[in-house]
Amino acid sequence: MIIEIDTEQLKSLGLSPNEFVYISMLSRSALDTDLKLDVNLIELQTNGWIKIGEDDEVILRNRSLVKEDDFDRMWSSLLSRFPIKVMCNGAVRILRAGDSNAKSNQKSKERYKKYVSGNVEKHNRVIKALETELDFRKRGNNLGWMQMLETWINNHSWEKYYTEEIKDNGGEPTVQEPGRITRLL
What we know:
2 domains, two-stranded antiparallel sheet
């Protein structure tokens, strides 16, 4: 099991690394008795982290250390940036459900999970491309034509906005100002 430890968080919470590891393992129901951790259970109970029940059963009380898994963080990050609704020709278009756990988002979530497959770098490229698209659409005043989340994910629409130009620029998107388009007739 891999457990990341943020030392600044430990200081602010007043926990030792052993206590942090113990609570993390307890939250995942993966306590390893072979691992020798120096933990004062009475002190953890006094501080409100755990409750010691009958037969020395330990129950986690404070779940503030329990982090969602990496994909859930990536999914939340994508949804926090993707618009819920847009205005198009004076009417409101709904692009996705507001609740990340809504049933209408589940199909999109599964498709995105399959694409990302735990790769944070892929996720970061998608986020940069989304930000580029949003910036481009806002500048061109055509945000109303943004695709629905499900369509956007199914079609891998971010690939249109994550171009070689972005890669060459160190991952920073560059958006040109939309100019006037003229043609000679």
